[in-house]
Amino acid sequence: MKPRINQLYTVRSIAILAVLLIHATAKPLSELDRSTASYFGYQLFNTLSSFAVPVFIFLSGFVLIYNYMDKPISFNAVWQFYRKRMLYIVVPYLVFSVFYFTFIQWWYYDFNHLPLIIEKFMHAFFIKGGTMYHLYYMYIIVQFYMLFPLVWMFFRQRWLTAYAVPIAFVFHWIFVYMNGYLELFPKRSIVSLNYMVYFLIGAYVAIHWEAWSRRFADGRHSTKLISALLGSWLLLAGAHVFLRYTLSTGQFSTHVKVYELVFVLYCLLSALLLLCLGSVIIRSAMIRLHNTMISIGALSFGIYLIHPLFQQFYRMIDISGNPMAYHSYIIGGFILVFLLSWLAAYLVERIIPYSWVLFGVVPRALPYKELTARTRIISKSISP
């Protein structure tokens, strides 16, 4: 059995915080004057967090290929793959799709004309990409599950694996250009092919992870690698922020393909940098930070699914007054929604039988570090 990669928990924890930060800053970006410094501040955090969905898709490709690349492809193996995803991913997706559709229908509309309501649900679920704004990610992931046997077969061909990265980029740009000229998908943000570059490169990294992690264990090598990644990331982050802000305010225009390239490279470097930082945190003496990130990462699926509910209620608060009150309201909302979502996911996992129906499966043994023994990793029940 392959060793568990504990760094993935820390990457998930940062990625889910980025998701919440995107949603928290969406409100001020839609309300503030674009010429103000406040708008730039919120745009900065929103843009820097935009790696969230691509990183989660990168992790999906990483985890699936890491777990399946050495397994022979057979009917039973494919059946077991789909069985697990249906139970622990698709079932919670369906449950929350129905829940959020019912909630929004009750919140804004009514329950008259049942046939029309059913039609609206089917349209939102199958065509729009989700019954709530955040569920489009699950719509994409289900598409990747449908395509996974093909990806699995691709990575079983060792001679093709060596060219996975250039193939991923070529595939992405073929899709971008074809969709631009032929308008195959008017809303390509909900199409898995739009994210295939992250999925394939995540899978490629998984194949080479054991060799790379051994090299990373060398302190001098890891320092040089992180420094190179961080420097490149800062350059791309600066370019990404500049392009997105100036495009949104109309101060600068560039070809859409230039922005696309910067965004893709920024997200890929973010994924690689987070893996490296995760390795640093896993090996560090910062035990409380380590354990906190392990808990958040393990519960990230539940946090992702439930947080819009708390955000919806929080935004019922009427805020008015000076800018400081407004900024406190936005920042406080981000913190409160995160803490409530984390607590809800933790309590559901601990208390409710068959909690996987709501939030999927949380590993029973997690790599927490004992506060009294910094180097010994023990398995404990999760605790936020």
Explain what this protein looks like in three dimensions.
The protein is 74% helix and 3% strand. A hairpin with a 2-residue loop joins strand 1 (366-370) and strand 2 (373-380). Strands 1-2 form a two-stranded antiparallel sheet. It is built from 16 helices and two strands. By secondary structure, the chain is mainly alpha-helical. It is globular, with a radius of gyration of 21 Å. Helix 1 (7-31) packs antiparallel against helix 3, helix 1 (7-31) crosses helix 13 and helix 3 (52-68) packs parallel to helix 6.
Rounded to the nearest angstrom, the distance between the terminal CA atoms is 28 Å
Q: Return Rg in Å.
A: 21 Å
Number of helices: 16
Strands of the widest sheet, in order across it, are: 1-2
Strand content: under 5%
What structural class should be given to the helix and strand makeup?
mainly alpha
In helices, the fraction of residues equals over 70%
Number of strands: 2
- Largest sheet geometry: 2 strands, antiparallel
Write the element-wise H/E pattern from the N-terminal end onward: HHHHHHHHHHHHHHHHEE
In round numbers, the mean pLDDT is: 90
The low-confidence parts are 373-384
Q: Which outline best applies?
A: globular
Q: What is the gist of this entry?
A:
74% of the residues lie in helices and 3% in strands. It has helices at residues 7-31, 37-48, 52-68, 75-108, 114-128, 136-156, 158-161, 164-182, 196-207, 209-216, 219-249, 256-283, 287-298, 300-314, 323-351, 356-359, and strands spanning 366-370, 373-380. The chain has a two-stranded antiparallel ribbon with strand order 1-2.
